[in-house]
Amino acid sequence: MRDPARVLGPLGARPWVQGSRSATHRCDTRADVSTLARQAWLLAKNDLRQELRDLELVLTAAFFTLVVLVMFALAFAALPAADQTLAVPGMLWLAVAFVGALTLTRIFDREREADTLRALLTWPVERTAIYFGKLIVSLAVVFGCTALLLPALALLFPGASAFLERPGESFLLLALGCIAYCSVGTLFAAGLATASGKNVLLSVILYPLTSPALIFALVATRALLEGHPSFTTYLGQLAALDVVVVVLAAWLFEPVLVGPVTRRRGPAPARSRSRGATP
Amino acid sequence: MIRHLPTALFAFAALVIPYSVDRIFLHTGIEKKMGTVQKIFYFHVPLAWIMMALGVTCGVAAAIQLRNRSRRAEAVSIAAAELVLLTGLGVLITGPIWGHATWGRAWTWDARQVSTGLLWLVFAAYVLVRRYGAAGSDRLAAALAIFGAVDVPVIYYAVKIWKTTHPTTDVVGSLPPQMWNALWPALAALCAVSIGLLLVRVRQELTAIALDEAWIAFDERAPKGASTKGGAA
User: Fold this and answer.
1) Whole-prediction pTM
2) pLDDT exceeds 50 at position B232
3) B217 near A CB under 8 A
4) For residue B1, what pLDDT is reported?
5) d(Cα A195, Cα A270) in Å, to the nearest integer?
6) Lowest mean pLDDT: which of B4-18, B90-104, B139-153, B212-226?
7) Where are the domains of chain A?
8) Could you give phi then psi for residue B35, rounded to 5 degrees?
9) CB distance A256–B154 less than 8 Å?
10) Structural domain tally of chain B?
């Protein structure tokens, strides 16, 4: 099989982007939302189809969720109901953080193993669409697996019965928390996929960066379980944080992956001669 | 001129620090509620301000680095991140000392304490990625710094967003003039030291980057087979 990198040139180089832009890539600067959404959905659908063929990511993430749930149940089953309202939010969002990290380390693996990320970047699609495509996939896996936690935690811990009593608000909260987590995670997982794949650094980056969102989600979950009236305020703040994080991550996706591509100078070269890394 | 700026800043700080200490401990009244321990405020607050300013500097420099591929901005970003770690350590040490005397507990999981700790962790992650990341991780670290800079206003408004035991931001605004007069010299001295250290680290990083590029250029020009060994020699 021919090396796509050799066929398609250096990372980030798209000849049709240089100079006058062709119709093929006219969406590069003036992409309307529908084009972006269609491209993102096509890419996500492709990844989801591949995932449905072997279920590797879904099954490992679901199994890991189950293991985490069993560990929490063993450790905290004897807690009094009053304390459970304090402990269950921690269990839920720790599980999201763990399952999310597991999923995000694998989300770009197919591209890295086949070196197709390079090919993907040279396609005439909006690069933001690549980000949103991957975000949809990671969100589907993380939300799909951790959604099982809500009824399970409610059944195991009487203090978390609000998850079953107010399912709409519970799932909305979980979705908003997952969006914040996965939007940051997808950006940095993509960056690490191109940077010779030091996946160990993903956890180093991900946990401090997503902590503000996880704290908001924790506070909101506790308010939900206690039936506190400020729950909707916390939910609104979490949604606002989601918007900020998604926009920032989408904006940073192209510069992080390929560097600024200018007409005169081309893509940014990697500089790593004396810092213990391989060029 | 700029070459001698760090030396001038350090000399200025060496003169102002003794004056500031004298002013704080001998010529400023003792706060009624908190007592003598309130004196730590004159170091804690300037350090926190400097840490936030450096965090924003790091984020802005990282954004310029990503946009313009500027080596100078990259060097500023690295230097500012390292100084965030240093000043953040000062904040995280002086804060609990003050908290222990005022609230009875060094660490109360107050929103601003947690946010400051998280900001420190974000910049620690930045330094780790810069140090151990593979080729191309400079851009990744820049994105991390931008996210860290976005975290700075979250810290500032954390007191208002969450109900908390930390003194509100209005405390500084309502200081009597005598205490303001004692705060300015401490702030000026700590700013001078921080800017001096920043300039020194920026110069070191620029030299390191220039050496990196020279080394790569040498490797590329050297004949095959002799590149690595020859380059090292």
Assistant:
1) 0.79
2) no
3) no
4) 67
5) 9
6) B212-226
7) 39-258
8) 80, -155
9) no
10) 1
Rg (CA), chain A: 21
**pLDDT 10s digits, A41-71:** 988 898 889 888 888 888 999 999 999 999 9
* Residue of B69, B134, B154 with shortest CB distance to A278: B134
Which residues of chain B does A211 touch, with a Cβ-Cβ cutoff of 8 Å? Answer: 118, 121
The interface residues of chain B toward chain A in range 88-147, judged by CB-CB distance below 8 A, are: 114-115, 118, 121-122, 124-125, 128-129, 131-140, 142-144, 146-147
User: Is residue B228 less than 8 Å (CB to CB) from chain A?
Assistant: no
* Three-class DSSP category at A169: helix
Query: What tokens does B16 get?
Result: 């102002």
Of A216, A136, A134, the residue nearest A174 (C-alpha): A216
Show the tokens assigned to B161.
């967003």
Is some CB atom of chain B closer than 8 A to the CB atom of A276? yes
Band (B162; pLDDT cuts 50, 70, 90): low
Residue percentage of chain B with pLDDT more than 70: 83
The verdict on residue B184 lying in a domain is: yes
Residue B94 lies inside a defined structural domain of this protein: yes
Average pLDDT over residues B109-138: 83
- B142 and A278 within 8 Å at the Cβ level: the answer is no
For residue B53, give its domain range: 10-202
Q: Do A255 and B137 touch (CB under 8 A)?
A: no
ipTM of the complex: 0.73
Q: A212 and B118: CB-CB below 8 Å?
A: yes
Looking at the DSSP assignment, which residues form a beta bridge with residue A266? A262
CA–centroid distance for A153 within its chain? 23
Residue B175: the pLDDT is 72
Residues from chain B that touch A201, judged by Cβ atoms under 8 A, are 128-129, 132-133, 137
Q: Which residues in chain A have Cβ-Cβ distances shorter than 8 Å to B129?
A: 201, 204-205
Contact yes or no for A195 and B136 at CB 8 A: yes
* A115 touches A147 (CB < 8 A): no
Min CA distance, B44 vs chain A (Å)?
23
Q: Which residue of B has its CA nearest to A238?
A: B161
CA–CA gap between residue A128 and residue A251 (Å, rounded)? 8
Q: What is the pLDDT of residues A162-172, one digit of tens each?
A: 999 999 999 99
Read off the CATH number of the domain in which B43 is found.
1.20.120
Q: Is residue B160 domain-resident?
A: yes
Distance, CA of B55 to CA of B75 (rounded, Å): 14
